[in-house]
Amino acid sequence: MNRTQPLVLGIESSCDETGVGIVRGTTLLTNTVSSSMDEHVRFGGVIPEIASRAHLDAFVPTLEQALSDAGVVLDDVDAIAVTSGPGLAGALMVGVCAAKALAVATGKPLYAINHLVAHVGVGLLDGAGGGQHNGTAPQLPENLGALLVSGGHTEILRINSITDDVQLLGSTIDDAAGEAYDKVARILGLGYPGGPAIDMVARTGNPKSIRFPRGLSQPKYMGTAEEPGRHRYDWSFSGLKTAVARCVEQFEARGEEIPVADIAAAFQEAVVDIISSKAVLACREHGIKDVLLGGGVAANSRLRELTGQRCASAGIRLHVPPLDLCTDNGAMVAALGAQLVMAGVEPSGIRFAPDSSMPVTSVSLPA
Amino acid sequence: MLILAIDTSAVASAALVSSEAPGSVVASFSTEDTRSHAEVLAPGIEEMLAGAGVTGKDIDALVVGVGPGPFTGLRSGIATARTLAFVWGKPLHGLVSLDAMALEVAESAAAVPEFLVATDARRKEVYWARYSLADGRLPVLEDGPHVSFAADLPDLPAFGAGAGLYADALKAHPDFAQEQPDALYLGKFALARLEAGNGLLDSTPLYLRESDAQVPGPRKRAL
Ligand SMILES: [Zn+2]
Question: Which residue in A40, A157, A301, B40 is deepest, having the highest Cβ count within 10 Å?
Fold first, then answer.
């Protein structure tokens, strides 16, 4: 196996995007994605069975497209990487079975990769924002944190080594932030996906008109830096969603018009405020000087703005990869796969099981 | 003609069948388990190919059981078969997974002119189909496949684990009360049809049930 500039093909199927990406070392050759998002619109959220059916039909065409876009053939590939978790169990299964078949048919080594760490790995691609070039290959900064916010996850990670030492500092204990956006968009009649819809409407609203709760911000959850509470760096969004529903009903009960833009702006402010304040707190208390933003909600204008401001005042650099590398994709899986190959990590083989709750401490599965 | 057959409609199984091999069987494997397809299928195929000294180049076609069967397991086999066929550049065909057991019945001493094949569809239902059988011919699918409660099936001898599970409601044949569709018979069925110049299905899965997704109704009140 070429371990210096390996050609790695990455496969992603943990949610509603079927992704195949190809990288050579840290150079992105293609990031091909087929999304079933349109099929979920009428349900107001991702339906796992519909996503799984779509992955099955999208996989081979996406693979074929990726190979053609990158101008490579399977024979050239040094290794295959696939998301083995965390994610929707049935959706992961399709990508994992396809990846294993690819490994059997080509005889190439296969790496089973953690989806969340892959969101960070994408920062190592040339020009993606996180990597530091010292004349040679890009390296992640030391003391790196990652803030991942999407429809499926909300996490803050500390990355000591992208290939074998990643730590979960905090995460949501119920809904993901993107899920809260979807649910609130439905309450406000703004359609799916909720993130862009709310972000847009919120621009014309007054975020201070209503004060929505910031979950897990009470002292009993926070504790102090010396004696941290149980949820010091964790988030909760289910109470916020209920508060929005209650607020809407109160306007309805009074027979008043619902101030959709104000509610959207106030909701968004509550989400973004608590995400960015807790993320910056976790970074400050762990000596983190660089933070990479990942996940689809990285597209949210207010999240980028407020997180950027707060990071700047805390002396933390915020890196935001291009948006198509922030949302779920195969390039990030390939990028992390290439890092593992270059670090000399052994492949996972073809006997592993997908793990819908794979912890970040497991960057790739051992053989 | 050498065919690689794969079925994951119930258990995970794969087989290599060839018109040149005795009894058409080159190699086969299957698991007991109906829930670990993603782990066992690829290694099973890899070992089977290596054991038989066969590579992708030697294979003329692939056939996959398109169900019906529990969705996640069913997709494991189809995703595997589609990917292998793509990489090797070989044609991929589909067969109703229940056909495999119909052929197994036909080749057994228990064969009767008209019968049902039933597998477990979970949720107290069975996947089933009705077959007819004439001497020296392949079984013919007359009706189905469907998904129903066992009590609603025609009153005919019934074969397969779905019949065994509801032996009180069905005329379950005891020798087949735990049988599951197997790629070995699927491959033999496909081989016989292809050699006779008959077509097969494509690899579109037979889900028979919609996804459980429901379009959300009016917002529930939180107060
Ligand atoms: Zn993701």
Answer: A157
